[in-house]
């Protein structure tokens, strides 16, 4: 990548999941040849070795299935990945993804043995996606009323994890803005929005591979959704760029999707014909 998006680094797994959610889910039921994934990520500057490694890791995590037909390997979505991608699609396509309507806050506390680092990382990733920020070790805060069922499900996979959550409203005189600044780096979040806007606003490079460009848009947007906790606007200062980011994404998505869908269908057809 040589454009502005190069300033934001995306892991091959992130690009593969963005590709799956945007162009594979509910469009291609059968597994796709490895060649398809290699070609897309190669257009984004990824090496074949890194892509194959990412496909293997996603398979080990139960998000992809691997199939072998002679010398040709193919990968398909699992029931788990389809469910997760459909859940993510709701937020990806939300009309106002950064507008907070609730005045409540969700507090969550958990304790986990230090030896369970893998589970800790998964739990923190799930908490970030749900809009939580860390007030201090083991105590997390999120705006609005958060459905904790999916987060608690992570804890059910291992022993020794205790999760407690409740919804609360600030008492009069509470300096909520101070808690917000402690849990989230608002300056860094503003820069993330501004970077997204700079990259995707206005004319797009029509000479780029539309599938690669659409995949990159999806990965960048998911990154922004993951980082932004959807805080009440009154704590964010003037000229907060989130609404503009949403508008820019809608325009870029509408512009790129038709070409990307058509080009990806041709890519899959060609890869299957070369088996």
From TrEMBL:
Pfam families: PaaX (PF07848), PaaX_C (PF08223), PaaX_M (PF20803). One of its GO terms (biological process) is DNA-templated transcription. Residues 184-262 form the Transcriptional repressor PaaX-like C-terminal domain. It comes from the Bacteria. Residues 102-146 form the Transcriptional repressor PaaX-like central Cas2-like domain. InterPro entries: PaaX-like_central (IPR048846), PaaX-like_N (IPR012906), PaaX_C (IPR013225), PaaX_trns_reg (IPR011965), WH-like_DNA-bd_sf (IPR036388). Residues 37-79 form the Transcriptional repressor PaaX-like N-terminal domain. It comes from Geodermatophilus ruber. This is Transcriptional regulator, PaaX family.
